[in-house]
Amino acid sequence: MGYFDGQVVWITGASSGIGEALAYALAAEGAVLILSARREDQLARVRAACPVPERVHLAPLDLAETGDLPALVAKWVAQLGRIDILINNGGMSQRAYAAETSLAVDRRLMEVNYFGPVALTKAVLPHMRQAGGGHIVAVSSITGKFGFPLRSAYAAAKHAMHGFFESLGLELHGEGIRVTLVNPGRIRTEISQHALTADGRPHGEMDPGQAQGMPAEVCARKMLQAIRKGRPEVNIGRAEILMVYFKRYAPWLFRRMARRVSPQ
Ligand SMILES: NC(=O)c1ccc[n+]([C@@H]2O[C@H](COP(=O)([O-])OP(=O)(O)OC[C@H]3O[C@@H](n4cnc5c(N)ncnc54)[C@H](OP(=O)(O)O)[C@@H]3O)[C@@H](O)[C@H]2O)c1
Questions:
Q1: Do the domain assignments include residue 1?
Q2: Which residues are catalytic?
Q3: Which of 14, 100, 218, 248 satisfies CB 3.0 to 4.6 Å to 35 for a cystine?
Q4: Domain limits at 239?
Q5: Do the beta carbons of residue 24 and residue 7 sit within 8 Å?
Q6: Comparing C-alpha atoms, which of 196, 186, 178 is closest to residue 232?
Q7: What is the Å distance from ligand 1's center to 152 Cα?
Q8: Ligand 1 and 193: CB distance under 6 A
Q9: Which residues does the chain have with pLDDT short of 70?
Q10: Residue 66 near ligand 1, beta carbon < 6 Å
């Protein structure tokens, strides 16, 4: 029996990209899944492609609308008995200069990328405490470790995730509830198409850098390894993850590179 066999795993952002790849990888390992995102038709498509669709449940939600989350979580705990692992993966990027981005877009990126995962985590946590254990995963970004052109609000929201989830992991130490922060680099998904521009419209293009990124399936596999090992934090990607170390150990080199690398 594998590590995830029979575990109840809730994945947000499961209608495409990394979340979809996580759903297939976990389903193949025998997990019982709850899949969330806004597009219910896409969640249904993912469920249909899983080996045993009856073990996959759909919980459509909008991460910007957090009021109903405690009731939604209570409903699924009542139905499935518990939530073993919550993967806060749903999110949205940005392709716009800070000076041109409307404050409404800044706020939206913070709602979806930060307050949504925080609210869902707070709704799930009492149930994990009652069950005596669990694992909370926060999918941040390497842009949660440094600023980057065209990503001001996205980077801010991902930095905020680090502050919250690292603190939470320290607070929960000894309670049997683990917290893992995942920092993907460039992963080949639809993230650049869905990214918000200055006025809130989607960027709508697969950026060249994105197209050359690590396949989502490989990223998902590495994420599951990190979860299995209970790692507090993991960087996943190709050469771009070196930027995390340049920023930390040679900030002058980081700044020189970040000014030169194409943000698209
Ligand atoms: N791809 C990368 O290079 C990369 C790098 C670093 C970090 N990440 C992070 O990885 C995570 C997954 O992104 P991805 O690359 O797989 O991009 P993606 O293909 O665009 O997937 C994003 C997912 O988030 C969901 N989502 C977006 N807004 C939402 C909202 N308001 N409410 C609920 N769900 C919402 C989307 O579903 P709906 O549209 O159906 O709601 C979709 O399932 C994100 O947190 C992203 O920041 C990705």
A1: no
A2: 154
A3: 14
A4: 8-260
A5: no
A6: 178
A7: 17
A8: no
A9: none
A10: no
